[in-house]
Design a protein that fits this description.
Largest sheet: 5 strands, mixed
Helix content: 40-55%
Number of helices: 21
Distance between the termini: 68 Å
Structural class: alpha+beta
Number of domains: 3
Mean pLDDT: 75
Strand content: 5-15%
Strand order of the largest sheet: 3-5-4-7-8
Number of strands: 8
Shape: globular
Low-confidence stretches: 1-11, 89-110, 253-268
DNA sequence: CTATGGCACGGATT
DNA sequence: AATCCGTGCCATAG
């Protein structure tokens, strides 16, 4: 197949290494921008439509090489890499790309503000644009309004009415719920965007509006009492909220600002990698797709190279530098793809249970061990894992780094212990319970994990049980 | 007096 | 070398 030629694995220069590393840490969205920037600044680099054979420009049926040119390419000069929007492989049968119809990807913004502005382009009156920019810039890191609309109106010398109209507009763009006052309003804004008729959505709305505090403390029974519905329904509605809404919409975007809250599974965003079931064989090997940020053939422009040769000595410094850089860049992308592929192959084979059955089955692995296994430096693994997200077969999107979270399975056990407890267990009791199950951790650590999972201390859980009994 | 959270230390990990 | 993580100690709230 045409993907990565072995020549990409030959000894590296330090410059090569450095650039490979710097590319490896990037998420897809960031890489996309990087590739585009490189393309526009370097004339020696070219990107061809992926449906055309890069050699003879004949249209291609699939992502396979053109039969006419495939033999030729081996001897052809210059690295070339095929970037597809979805690059698929199966874990056990070796790497393989899968043909995929071309999808036009939505513009992937490096910057949340630009992303929003693009979407609003048609709805936003031109004279409101500066105002929108001002508002977006004034949001805090979670994407909420830091200043009161009246303040914004004053600062921009516009009417309060106008400010509120623009804010309302922003809050409807993806990610929905931006520029709201806080998590509650963000959730409500998102609720507005989905089906209104469903009774569960109606109840969810009432809960957000009237019993938000209680919801945060998971006092479902109290909520049921206050709203006069059955606890069962409250549970369902809470689950609905958890599954479909994101209280911190801005955190879905990783490039800018902080990382998503650890432990929060609700990271909405285009994943960098997708793991799914094999459609024909559920029990078979998992399917891994490593998304590429861009599609097409990326290579050094052969015309550019030829032109340089014919120009001979008169070649300017600048040109050869371009050529050098372009070739380096392509090789680095190859290297990046290669590393990601090896990494994911290992992950799906080693952590199959984790992927399919949930957090408890995560086998603790350190980055160093993985590095050893796939034969790269451990810092390479660190970079490969950083800033990437994975979509699991069940639809959850989690940071790739979660695969290396040593405490994940224990935290999951704690969650279960608490869920099944008859009376509220203290941290000490939980610790000894865990010890019986063969997990030796200190009481203090239980407390930390419990906090991470948002589980209340035993005393407060007791209060909840009382209200349930009443 | 007991359960818990804050702070800080040391060892492991990156 | 920098960071993360588990843990012990101690203050505090109930």
């Amino acid at each position: 197949m045409l993907q990565i030629q072995d020549q990409s694995l030959r000894p590296l220069t330090t410059a090569h290494l450095a650039q490979t590393m710097s590319l490896l840490v990037l998420s897809n969205q960031e890489l996309r921008d990087r590739v585009l920037a490189e393309l526009s600044s370097n004339p020696a680099l070219e990107l061809l439509d992926e449906r055309v054979c890069p050699e003879c420009h004949r249209p291609l049926r699939s992502a396979s090489p053109c039969p006419v040119c495939s033999r030729k390419r081996a001897s052809e000069d210059g690295p070339i890499v095929f970037l597809s929007p979805r690059e698929s492989l199966r874990p056990r049968s070796g790497a393989r790309f899968q043909e995929e119809p071309m999808e036009t990807e939505p513009a992937a913004p490096e910057d949340l503000a630009i992303h929003i502005l693009r979407q609003l382009a048609s709805d936003l009156a031109p004279e409101d644009r500066p105002l929108a920019i001002y508002i977006l810039a004034s949001l805090d890191e979670d994407g909420f309004l830091r200043d009161h609309p009246a303040l914004i109106a004053k600062a921009t010398r516009s009417s309060l009415d106008r400010v509120q109209r623009v804010i309302a507009l922003i809050s409807t763009a993806d990610p929905v719920g931006l520029a709201t006052l806080g998590p509650r309003q963000a959730l409500l804004a998102q609720l507005d965007q989905i089906q209104h008729e469903q009774p569960i959505a109606t109840l969810a709305r009432r809960m957000l509006e009237q019993t938000f505090e209680e919801l945060g403390r998971r006092e479902f029974d109290k909520i049921a009492h206050l709203l006069g519905v059955r606890p069962r329904q409250v549970h369902d509605a809470a689950a609905f909220i958890h599954a479909n809404l994101n209280p911190y919409p801005a955190r879905a975007y990783w490039g800018s600002g902080r990382q998503a809250a650890p432990g929060d599974p609700n990271v909405y965003h285009q994943p960098d990698i997708m793991i799914s079931h094999n459609p024909v064989d559920e029990g078979g090997p998992l399917m891994v797709e490593i998304f590429s940020p861009i599609s097409g053939w990326l290579r050094v422009n052969p015309l550019f190279r030829k032109a340089m040769v014919t120009a001979g000595e008169s070649t300017s410094e600048e040109w050869s530098e371009h050529l050098e850089k372009a070739s380096l860049f392509v090789k680095c992308i190859q290297q990046r793809n290669n590393t990601m592929r090896k990494l994911m192959q290992l992950m799906v084979s080693q952590q199959r249970d984790f992927i399919l059955k949930g957090p408890r089955h995560l086998k603790p692995m350190t980055r160093a061990q993985v590095a050893e296994a796939i034969g790269v430096h451990e810092s390479t693994v660190s970079r490969a894992v950083a800033n990437k997200s994975v979509a699991l077969p069940d639809g959850r999107i989690i940071p790739l780094a979660k695969f290396f979270d040593r405490s994940l399975s224990v935290r999951d056990r704690i969650k279960e212990i608490v869920r099944n407890e008859q009376k509220p267990l203290t941290d000490d009791e939980i610790a000894s319970q865990l010890r019986k199950e063969g997990v030796k951790i200190a009481r203090r650590t239980v407390a930390k994990y419990r906090a991470m999972e948002g589980i209340l201390p035993a005393r407060l859980r007791a209060a909840r049980q009382l209200s349930q009994a009443a």
